[in-house]
Amino acid sequence: MELTTMWTEEGKKAGRVEGRVETTLHLTQRLLQNRLGTLPADLEAQLAQCSFNQLTMLAEALLHFTSQADLRAWLLANPPAAPSNGHTNGVV
């Protein structure tokens, strides 16, 4: 495979991954706001650091949340991982 073709394909894949993460984050934030009201900036910042897999798990868990304390407890039990190279963010 030609080098420029490989770079193009890598760029497309990275864009799709980033799009999935952003969409999942946006949907999870909307569900949380609907369930718990406006979220403080610190919680929004923690959500933005979550991986795709964490956001997916959170989207399921939030169905049982009744307060922002539940979200804080979940985030303490499932802390966002330190960012890696940014290529997958938990999406394969």
Entry keywords:
92 residues; mainly alpha; 4 helices
**Given the C-alpha coordinates, what overall shape results?**
elongated
Helix content: 55-70%
What letter string, H or E per element, gives the SSE order? HHHH
Beta-sheet strand percentage? under 5%
Runs with pLDDT <50, length 5+?
A: none
Based on DSSP secondary structure assignment, what is the total number of beta strands? 0
User: How many helices does DSSP assign?
Assistant: 4
**Mean pLDDT rating:** 86
- Give the C-alpha Rg: 15 Å
Between the first and last Cα atoms, what is the distance in angstroms? 22 Å
Structural class: mainly alpha
* Most strands sheet: none
In short:
The protein has 92 residues and is mostly helical. The protein has helices spanning 3-36, 41-48, 52-61, 68-77.
What does this entry look like structurally?
With 92 residues, the chain is mainly α. It has a domain at 39-80. The protein is 67% helix and 0% strand. The protein is built from four helices and no strands. The longest helix is centred in the N-terminal third of the chain and has 34 residues, at 3-36. It is elongated. The model has no long low-confidence stretch (mean pLDDT 86).
Secondary-structure map with pairings?
Elements: H1 3-36, H2 41-48, H3 52-61, H4 68-77
Helix pairs in contact: 1-3
